[in-house]
Amino acid sequence: MSRRDDDLDEEIRQHLRMAAEDRGEEAARREFGNIQLIKEVTRDMWGWRMLERFLQDLRYAFRGMRRNPAFTLTAVLSLALGIGANTAIFSLIDALLLRSLPVHDPRSLVELIVYQNGEPIDSFSYPVVRALAEQKQIFSALAGFSGAKFNIGTGESIERTSGAWVSGEFYQTLGLQPLIGRLVAPQDDQPGAAPVAVISDDYWEAKFARDPQVIGRAILIENVAVTIVGVSPPGFSGANVGEVAEITVPLSANTQLFSEMTGRLSTGSEWLRILARPQPGISLAQVRASLRVVWPRLRNVAVDPRMPPQRRQVLLTSALDAIPGSTGWTYLRTQFRRPLLILMALVGMVLLIACANIANLLLARGEARQREIAIRLAIGASRPRLIRQLLTESVLLSSTGASVAIAFAWAASRVLVHLLSTWRGAIILDLMPDWQVFGFTAALALGTGILFGIAPALRTTAAHPSSRTRLHSFLVAAQVAVSFVLLIGAGLFVRTFENLDRIDPGFRHEGVLLVQGDLHRAINPARVPVYRDTLQQIEQLPGVVSATLAGNIPLSNAWFTVPAGVNGRTPSGESVHVYTIAPHFFETMRTPLLAGRDFTDRDDTNSVDVGIVNQAFVRCYFPDGHPLGQRVSLDRVADSGVQIVGVAGDAISQSLREPPPPTVYLPLYQRQTEFPTFVVRASGSLSRVASKLRHALQPQIPAAIQIHTLSAHLEAELVQERLLAALAAAFGVLALILAAIGLYGLLAYTVARRTAELGIRMALGADRARLIWMIVKRALWLLLCGMLAGIPVALAASRSINSMLFGLTATDPATIVLAAALLAAAALLAAYIPARRASRIDPLSALRCE
Amino acid sequence: MLKREPYRNRIELLQGTLDLLILQTLQWGPQHGYAISQAIRANSGDTLYVDTGSLYPALHRLERKGWIAAKWEVSEHRQRTKSYRLTATGKKQLLTEHSRWFRMVEAMARALNPRRKQA
Description:
Chain A is an alpha+beta fold and 850 residues long. Chain A contains 27 helices and 22 strands.
């Protein structure tokens, strides 16, 4: 009570006193009316009542929460899980799609894309980057960049470290200042410039213990001494979201670090992303308009006379465009955008179901508080005021849940990112909640609080409350509907994953180790003898069954396709996949060789050009089925043709979702290839064989050796499907449990309320089966209503995920039936206990209750 | 169950007039809440009856607007009493309200008896 309240009391007492002197106390009171109400209306005039009332409601809500620990715990925990799951998924969406780079004025950055044949491409060649960087009338600075992996150090201490290639204006474009030293500048990115490197703050901390003397020191990158010139500002780890660039090197240093890969900086090598900062005052629309004007003059730079005419044509008709670039670049965005949005929808549905459950709990609690509320209404409390207070209570519940949720989401989003990481490398995202995440969670807390609080609040404060059962039934049917949608979605994703997982890739991935380590650098120039010797050495290691080399590996996202022609016809039309392999490839991969022979050590540059094709190739090019001895010519690879000496079984090439394509295998000893990988089939402990391989090969290879399994390639291929299937299934089960709990609560309440009626029915001779059927009928009726409401929603929603499915359509009847069966089973289980209770009602005690 | 709506409605109905009546009553000197209600009743020949549910909210609202000011005094019976007086802005407000009221009455009369105006 404030001083002001005391004064008001006093003022009213004064009025009553004076009136009593005139007309007597009794009449004065009657005349005055409802003192409490008048006080309240008067207080409203004071103006600052809103806050005071809110605090009062809050205090009251806190007390209510403490009085009902079981209810509070249930509600807060389920909200923490529901909101937490939403926040976790949103954190990923935020980190991947929404978060700005930690650079100066990220909003004004633009990313450039080029439309080739109408397809948006985000990769550019170095000459194009240089030419665009000169367009100072449009851009104050423009940078090309790409992620990289560097071998740092030498000998035993060699470490593979994530880094980045950047053009000279990279840091200028981003508007970054060095922590110490200087950053890469345009003069570092010139032919012949001494190679320099900028290290990240984290790397400085981890490797140099923040020693300022690091500036000017040389580190060995790819066995070349590179001078460290500066440390980039804390929090910045490159413009590639999802990767961390510890060491950043100017693009021109390619010449010194990878002297044998001269092509990287020339026309046609499109591997750099472009971020640019427009001149002050130039809008995105103006940038796009200017690009349309200047690009026709510049795009010649993208073309090389040695390119095939088709390619030249594509490049010369390309169009340059700009999009907002504040969020940097990441390949993850294209890959995970849709799965994340789908997961967001799934967790949203789980939260809705949880809200319905809490609303049911609140309804039950409202019943218990009916007396209290009725008294408060009777002594003059206004209904909006009571509703406001009840909503304060539910929002307090949801806010408490949300604050627990933030911690839960922080952990969960890390686990999720961990699940997404594959052999290609860990995905590193900044998941520290920012204001967008907090804002999202706060909005969710407020929204859910009102959502699950409003209906119970309205009902509890109504003058003539409608039947609780009706609202309760509606909520339960809604839960069933949402669960049904969720279960159908989960079923589709689980079955898609199963279908993909069951595919026979055409090779046996178990027990195969892949050894990569920039081998070409070690065994240049006299490669073939070295390959042979190394393979022999590997085959003699204990645990190795067979070993081979391959220029490219299935499911590694690096493929090579060219047009092919048979029997002297010019290569044209459909492209075939080309694999360059050493002998024993099919034996090692366990791909059957169906006809002819494998390559041998003698298939080298001194002998006839040969090739092996797969069945798909035979089906496509030799429908009559006599490929052996025929000739295949491959555009630009083997224009004069190779002789087919064998036919291999079909095997998956680069995508599990596509059937094995027509493939031509060429002998590695006849064709030079840049990045051969050792493929080793081992028996027993793969890790022991891996360490033996490492030990045996390291002296010959001046780079970090990476060994992973072929199985990891398959897993990586399915990472998105596996994640969706696992999470959708988990959410589906959760939804099922929540809906079953909701249904159980409703039926149990019905039985409790109708105990007397059921007792009378029983006394009048109704048999137990009939009573059980009454309850089960109710459950089935709710189930039916929910499902009928859910089906159109599910059909509409699943259409949008059709392209992500494999081996079934979005309206797959089996999945829908399975989801319905699961729901029905859960519903019957939920009905079991209340039904049994109904059947065991003792008529006598039931009647005595009355 | 008591409803609060009737009080609300009456405040809103009387909003302009009650404010004017209070200001008018106070122009002859400070008064207590009870005295104000009695004065309005007496001056209107027992026609206008001011409901306490409207009076006190109105007094507090006018106080907040700064048209009237309240003062606590201790009476001879050692009881605290609150009295209201008209402020300078309140006086100005009274004049405007006054003329507006008469304009309104005139307009209402004309609107309700159009024929007499023509005659």
